[in-house]
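Here is one chain, start to finish.
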Amino acid sequence: MIPTNSNNPTNCDPISSNCVVWQGPDIPCGNICTGDTISDVVAALCTELQLLQTLIENGGGSSFNIANINQSELIGTPATNLEELIQLMIDNIIINSGNSPGPGTGGDFDCAEVMKCAVTTPACFRELTGFSSGGNLNDWITTVSQHLCDLGTVTSTQQSLTTTLAARVSNLEQQPTGDPNPRVYSSGVTTKGVLTPIETVVQALDSQFITLRNTTGDPANISTGINTQPKDLTTPRSTEGYSGVIKTSPATSGDAQYNTWLAIDDLRKAVKDIQDNCCANIQLQRMNGINSLYANGTTCATALSAATANTGCLDIWNTTGVQWDTTVKAYSNPYNPGPNTELAHNQYYALCGGAAIARYSRTSPHWNNITTNCGG
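Its structure:
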């Protein structure tokens, strides 16, 4: 049966609320489930609304327990019910907004009080003058502000100094590097002991070097001169021999000059020997010519080895000048032929730098075993 209502609007079709189904979600707090009739839903909502109204009108009653609410930070007498709790919260909001109804209820936090609040200074600020490990907000802000002002002044000064230095550096970078005309002391190419422009010294040095090179030749000319030393220079011409050890392989002009002086000394001695003995009644000839020298040894092999190495090479003299002349005796001195200067008996003699070997005999025939090698 459909209930009717005299206030029902015209032209509406009456329908029972028991026939309308709730299709919304489940509402656990009201014990409402999807599929309930609208009659059940409205009844449940009304029940919850009446319960809420009762709680409010009765100050929360016994159904709203505020015992677990922490009121220790609120100013005022702790509340015992919901209504008192709400009022206490409103009072504290008013106090904290600076509109306290009067003294003794919490007071105001004005600017002066805020500035007195303690502040812990960060460790990095404690190294600066004027800071300590603690202090209030007003002191801290004042000191920080002063340091900021000081930093601004220092920064301005540094910026000005940096600009000046940058300009000076730029000017220096644009200047030529080094002394445009340095002066040096010369060791002799120009006046000694006088500071002279380096370009003058270099010009004088270059001029004297060219003059010297034109006189001595370039390195190739000097090398050629050194390497042109006679091969038989190792054998002296005088009977006294060299006064020093000849350099057999000169490498520098100094070596060549050293050998030259030894050779000159040797030639002077040889000339003196000729001067002293040029008038002897008997004068022998150098065997095989002036360029022939001979090395000796007790065997053919030792004589050949010495001749190949140009070791101990000497002149041999006879009356004919013929090499290996078996009819005449041979001597080591051209002016005093005799037993003291005659070649050693059965000694082998080999031509230095050549291929001729023979054995001398003091009895005729005076040369035998004449050969070009020691093999036969």
